[in-house]
């Protein structure tokens, strides 16, 4: 299990309160801690080393303990290893105290809510680098589709600039975070618009050329595409919550957002309206399934706000989003059935 170090900076006057809280829950969470004075001699730095699955419980307790001002700060960073191991330390403490106490907190087999938020926020911020990534990945997808080269198309899939904002939107819905939702929507809109316009311009310049097999593959949507998008979306969310970015490469390839969007622009620019609509439907299906799977998976992973008021607001936002995404998916399935029998 990965390890985390939680560093807490507090005024020296709060030392006894912090020590009491840490010792009270030390047996439950199985962590070790120590304190160090800072240079100004008016503050202390407490460092806790623990399993990542315990980090959210500990951070929630600390957040409830303090009235957060500039005097307080919590920083979380990874640790490679600790000697002796934490499980050995926990056993030693149990043997000394001769007590067995069942933890009141459910262990989360994932990174903490705050760590997850920071990781996803990095992928949703609209910046010059993000715009450049969208342009480059769109050009890679265009070249791959026009050359009928699967390897080049996979390169565009791996870059996946549209995945992060969609995951951010799902997390924002689950947490009821309107600021993150607005940032994710803004970034996603810019990314979609840039990619589509580049593909459309390319289609207009090249005209109605003979479409490649890879282009035609993305001009229709099947029920297996819906299942693949939902499963891949759920797997992507789990990869984020486990803090395992290497697992996302497979998800990026399986849940391809960029190629169908690029194909739609190329088809439209070439005047192939039917194929453009089919590719747009595949892209829309992937977006809907990703967000629906994201909201559900975040809920199953126990991602919730801390305070009661935030929980109520998040619950309302989650229900509303789930209804909207489900309704859109049902409408798409109905359209697919209609097109099939027409």
From TrEMBL:
Residues 88-109 are annotated as: Disordered. Keywords: Membrane, Transmembrane, Transmembrane helix. Signal peptide: none annotated. The keyword Transmembrane helix applies. Pfam families: DUF389. The chain crosses the membrane at residues 130-146, 152-175, 187-206, 226-244, 251-273, 279-300, 321-338. PANTHER family: AT15442P-RELATED. This is TIGR00341 family protein. It comes from Pseudodesulfovibrio piezophilus (strain DSM 21447 / JCM 15486 / C1TLV30).
């Amino acid at each position: 299990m990965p390890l985390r170090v939680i560093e807490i900076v507090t005024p020296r006057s709060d030392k006894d309160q912090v020590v009491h809280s840490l010792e009270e829950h030390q047996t439950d969470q199985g962590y070790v801690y120590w304190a160090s004075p800072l240079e100004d001699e008016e503050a202390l730095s407490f460092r806790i080393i623990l399993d990542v699955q315990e980090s959210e419980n500990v951070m929630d307790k600390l957040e409830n303990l303090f009235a957060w001002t500039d005097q307080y700060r919590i920083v979380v960073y990874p640790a490679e290893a600790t000697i002796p191991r934490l499980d050995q330390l926990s056993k030693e403490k149990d043997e000394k105290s001769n007590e067995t106490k069942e933890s009141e907190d459910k262990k989360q087999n994932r990174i903490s809510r705050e760590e997850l938020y920071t990781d996803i926020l990095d992928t949703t911020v609209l910046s010059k680098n993000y715009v450049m990534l969208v342009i480059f990945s769109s050009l890679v997808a265009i070249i791959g589709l026009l050359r009928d080269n699967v390897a080049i198309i996979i390169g565009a899939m791996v870059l996946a600039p549209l995945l992060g904002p969609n995951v951010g939107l799902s997390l924002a819905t689950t947490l009821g975070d309107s600021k993150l939702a607005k940032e994710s929507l803004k970034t996603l809109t810019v990314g979609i618009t840039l990619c589509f316009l580049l593909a459309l311009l390319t289609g207009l310049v090249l005209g109605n050329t003979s479409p490649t097999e890879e282009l035609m593959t993305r001009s229709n949507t099947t029920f297996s595409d819906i299942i693949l998008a939902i499963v891949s979306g759920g797997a992507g969310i789990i990869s984020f919550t486990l803090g395992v970015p290497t697992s996302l490469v497979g998800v990026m390839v399986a849940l391809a957002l960029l190629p169908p969007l690029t194909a739609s622009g190329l088809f439209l620019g070439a005047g192939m309206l039917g194929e453009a609509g089919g590719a747009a439907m595949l892209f829309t299906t992937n977006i809907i399934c990703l967000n629906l799977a994201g909201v559900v998976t975040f809920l199953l992973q126990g991602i919730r706000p801390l305070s009661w008021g935030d929980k109520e607001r998040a619950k309302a936002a989650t229900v509303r989003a789930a209804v909207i995404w489900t309704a859109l998916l049902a409408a798409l399935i109905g359209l697919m059935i209609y097109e099939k029998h027409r």
